[in-house]
Amino acid sequence: MSWYNEWWVWMVVALLLAIAEILIPAWIFFGFALGALFLGAMIWIGIGASMSLAWSLVVFAVFSLIAYVILRRIFGVRRGQIKIWDRDIND
User: Fold this and answer.
1) Averaged over 42-57, what is the pLDDT?
2) Distance CA 5, CA 27 (A)
3) Following DSSP, what letter does each residue of 14-62 receive, concatenated?
4) Spatial distance between the Cα atoms of 90 and 69, rounded to a whole number of angstroms
5) Dihedrals phi, psi of 90, to nearest 5 degrees
6) Tens of pLDDT along 50-59?
7) Dihedral-angle region of residue 46 (phi above 0 means left; psi in -120 to 50 means alpha; beta otherwise)
8) Signed CA dihedral, 71, 75, 81, 87: sign only
C-alpha cells in the first residue's frame, strides 16, 4: 500500500490545513481540510483504498470543491455587508 492510500496521511493533511486556516483565515484552507478529511474517512471505511495517486487527488479536489461551495453558501457574504452605490458623488 502506498502512502497516499493510508487514511491517517489524509487525516494529518486535514489537521494541518485546519491549523493553516486558523493561522491564515481565508475560508479556503477549511474547504481543503474538509476534502482531505472526507477522503481519509472514505479510505478508512475501505472505499477507494486501492486508488492511484491521480485518482486520489481528483477525489480530493472534488470533495474540496464541494466543501468550499457549501461553506461559501453557509458563511458567504451577508446581506447588507456590501455597499452598493446607486449614484455618483459628483452628480
Assistant:
1) 87
2) 27
3) HHHHHHHHHHS--SSHHHHHHHHHHHHHHHHHTTTTT--HHHHHHHHHH
4) 39
5) -90, 0
6) 888 889 899 9
7) left
8) positive
Q: Which residues contact 85 (CB under 8 A, 6 or more apart)?
A: none
How many CB atoms within 10 Å of residue 5?
16
Please report, as a single letter, which amino acid is at residue 10: W
State how far the alpha carbon of 2 is from the alpha carbons of 5, 9, 13, 69, 72, in Å: 5, 10, 16, 30, 33
Render pLDDT for 31-41 as a digit per residue (tens, 0 to 9).
999 999 999 99
Residue 6 to residue 18: CA distance in whole angstroms: 19
